[in-house]
Sequence to fold (651 residues):
Amino acid sequence: MSASRRAEIEAKRARLAELRRAREERAELERAERARDGDRSRDEIGRTRPARHDIDELVASLVGNAKTKPAEAPENAAAAAPATTTPPASTAPPASSTPPASTAPPAATTAPQTTQPAPAEPPAARPTENAQPPAAQPPEKVLYTKMVQTDAPEEHADEHASAAAHDGPAAEPSPTSPPTRADPAPQAAPLDVHAVAAAPEYAAFVETSARIVERALHEPYDLLTDYAYVPPAGGARDESAIGHVATLHTDTFAGRSVAALDWSTKHPELVVAGYTRAKTPVSLDDHDGLAAVWNVHAPHRPEFVFRAPTDVLSVLASPFHPHLFVGGTYSGQVLLWDTRHRGVPVQRSPLAFAPGAAQGHAAPVYSLAMPGTASAHELVSASTDGTVCTWALDMLGRPQDVLSLTNAQHPRSPDVSVASFGVLPHDTQRLCLGTTEGNIFTALRTDRAGARAGLELDHVYVGHSAPVTRVAFHPAGSRAPVDLGDLFLSSSMDWSVALWRVASARAKPTGAYHYPHADARVATSTRSNPLAFRAGAAPAWTPVAPLARFESEHDYCMDVQWHPQHPALFAQVDAAGRLDVYNLAKSTEKPALSTRTDAGLNRLSWERCESAARVAAGGFDGRIHVYQLADALVRPTDADWRAMQRWLAST
Fold:
């Protein structure tokens, strides 16, 4: 028997003794009252019986609680109920009652339970006065276990809670017991660690995670900006300044030059660059050309690196596909890369000297273009052997159209060496070709009424005396306030940039019967030009002079590009490392902005978005410099369009 149960019985016995003393005191008071008043009726004396009866029931319950017998089976409960023995009439009436149920919780069963009645109090403890006949036994109390029907718990419940409920509460450790030592955490074997580190999935995960962290670290947002700060009067930012944003370079590209550059249209933060082979190869990979996709927010590591068998001389980010990049190589191959398939090209054109290869390029491809719309577009490439090919992006194994350009009027060779070309915005079948001799020609890619595919020799754009490095048409189309689609710029190694307008009608032939060239010594020398001063009919060509020339005082002009939004803004780079930004609406004599780098610059590209405030310039040292222009300079206004229109009318 537990200590708590023993204490409970002792408390009940003390209570029982107190009740007995109270009963004896009341009995003495009653006897004294009857002695004083002998005429008290029997009914008045019987009023105290209910209290005495309650006392008897309480005594029986207290004494019988400790002697309760276990319940019998339900089917034998009614037959096994014992009957109480009737005491003699001379003794006190019996106190037979059914004790209450035990305070312990009932058993988990729905069968009825019965309890045995407690034995009657000994006759000596009962008063002998006023003996009464035995009272009727009260009905027996039948107890049932009350339960609530619920749904069974789900199988995926907390395993720890179910285990604790099944096993019971865990025993607390004894203060004297020694502390248990936890088992050491299992460690992977060194071989397993190396295997995980060498897994391609692990390397891809680490590379992707590191790139994401690097982007976040280079986010230009300033957390310490004080919006209540008022700058001094002289501390305002110069709206005519050009700021350096980032330099995209990695040491693994050391010894390579940036040969091509283009900005992505779908992702304004991505810049794709084509690289030559390393000047001093260290590994086998240095013998290959590269095309790298850079993120302005992660300048120390490219997002993607694509391989090429030779130097990548031209690159193009597809304006209609966010994952496709096209490159032209020194061997004449046209390669297509997909960011979803890293490394090698997903498609490539065959080499011209390969057995069974279709006709294509057999010379370096320095220029690419993708005219058309999102639903109907094609790829156009030109090489220095005078071949212009038209491709479909889904099939580079064979060109859709091949055009071989020849110039029968040339005094030396009929071949046309194309260094750069541009596609007319209003006529995508017409090209403007810049050659290595300095002249610029127009050509048709397909036959049309009254004209055959090939060079249009009725007009020759004469203005450069050295190879033309870039031909760029004005991006403003018919939607602009002023249509400037017939204007184009050309850069050359003669240290100059020229502005041209496409000739629309045949001009009157000049009196010069020599081959047109910007260098008079070349054009009029009978030694270098057998056609000089040839007598006979008028020549078939008409020289076209540039509208304006922009001379450089530093070195070769390597590239020139119009601003995508501003009508009068363009930028040029030269081999001396100088970047100049001109605004024709303000001045044609000197650039509006100018900056310089340590190494020579070879290519540039404007950001292809609505604001287009950034320009990227690639150098011969393999670095790509990104510059930011003020919004007031690159945001066009109506006054800029009118000023550009007035300037063109005056030239």
In short: The CA atoms of residues 65 and 102 lie 7 Å apart. The longest strand covers residues 454-461. The radius of gyration is 53 Å. The mean pLDDT is 77.
